[in-house]
């Protein structure tokens, strides 16, 4: 992970990038300053830093500080280059007469070179300044969604805080999944024990039925040879076996 904040001097240079500045970082810009279209932005949206993420697939995240000019309330949004490109694609059919400034993709070379990324920040900042300075574009749903204008997140000061929040949520999900796996294992053990008890019950029932059958046969033989009532103990045991065998 590599983090690169933007210095104060760089921020001043970013703020001086105008919407009709021509080619920025090999991007294509055109003048959108039509009469009555350009307005004083309701929000300040400087790109104040970027970070190269390396945990999984390597990519760069740009940190944008969104501040409401009138109230001073601010928050941060984190966007990849593909997010900017997706926003530009959404805006084109809505405003077909305008071409917005967006630095192109780099097909060759190191996309994570600091100098290249600094140039890309300049190009992206020009793109942001163009859309936020346009009366209609700045109020369009794609732009409001991109900057979270209708549902601002809590102001997290650093990407580390955002990552910490994500890691905390991931940890909670992991613990819940772990507990679920443990519960599943316990249920499987209980099912196994229940199957074992059912098997034992079946064996005992068969044994009792066999004992009852043998006892009945023996009693019949004794009654034939020497007719008399069986003892109370034998009668009680036989009755108990019959009861158990019927369960």
| Residue fraction in strands | 5-15%
Radius of gyration: 39 Å
CATH topology of the largest domain: PX Domain
Shape descriptor: rod-shaped
Largest sheet: 5 strands, antiparallel
Which series of helices and strands comes N to C?
A: EHEEEEHHHHH
Q: Roughly how many Å apart are the termini?
A: 69 Å
Low-confidence stretches: 6-31
For CATH, the homologous superfamily of the largest domain is named as Phox-like domain
Question: What CATH architecture of the largest domain would you give?
Answer: 2-Layer Sandwich
Q: How helical, in percent, are the residues?
A: 40-55%
Put simply, the count of helices is 6
Look at the helices and sheets and give the structural class: alpha+beta
InterPro entries: PX_dom, PX_dom_sf, SNX16_PX, SortingNexin/PXDomain-PKLike
Subcellular location: Cytoplasm; Early endosome membrane; Late endosome membrane; Lysosome
Protein name: Sorting nexin-16
Pfam families: PX
Can you walk me through this structure?
This protein is α+β, with helices and mostly antiparallel strands and 247 residues long. The chain has 2 domains: 2-155, Phox-like domain (PX Domain); 173-245. Helices cover 52% and strands 12% of the residues. It is built from 6 helices and 5 strands, in the order E-H-E-E-E-E-H-H-H-H-H. Strands 1, 2, 3, 4 and 5 form a 5-stranded antiparallel sheet that branches. The chain is rod-shaped and about 120 Å long. The protein starts with a strand and ends with a helix. Residues 6-31 have low confidence and may be disordered. Residues 1-28 are annotated as: Disordered.
């Amino acid at each position: 992970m590599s983090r690169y904040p933007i210095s104060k001097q760089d921020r001043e240079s970013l703020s001086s990038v105008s919407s009709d500045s021509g080619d920025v970082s090999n991007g294509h810009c055109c003048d959108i300053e039509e009469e009555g279209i350009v307005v004083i932005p309701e929000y300040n949206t400087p790109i104040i830093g970027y970070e190269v993420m390396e945990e999984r697939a390597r990519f760069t995240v740009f940190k944008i500080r969104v501040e409401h000019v009138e109230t001073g309330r601010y928050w941060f949004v984190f966007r990849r280059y593909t997010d900017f490109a997706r926003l530009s694609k959404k805006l084109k059919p809505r405003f077909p007469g305008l071409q917005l400034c967006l630095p192109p993709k780099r097909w060759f070379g190191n996309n994570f070179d600091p100098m290249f990324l600094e140039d890309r920040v300049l190009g992206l900042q020009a793109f942001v300044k163009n859309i936020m300075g346009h009366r209609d574009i700045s109020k369009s749903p794609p732009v409001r969604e991109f900057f979270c204008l209708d549902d601002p997140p809590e102001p997290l000061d650093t990407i580390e805080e955002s990552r910490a929040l994500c890691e905390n949520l991931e940890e909670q999900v992991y613990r819940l999944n772990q507990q679920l796996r443990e519960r599943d294992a316990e249920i499987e053990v209980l099912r196994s024990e229940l199957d074992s008890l059912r098997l034992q019950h079946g064996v005992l029932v068969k044994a009792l039925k066999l004992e009852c059958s043998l006892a009945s046969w023996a009693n019949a033989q004794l009654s034939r040879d020497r007719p008399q009532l069986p003892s109370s103990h034998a009668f009680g045991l036989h009755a108990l076996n019959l009861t158990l065998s019927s369960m």
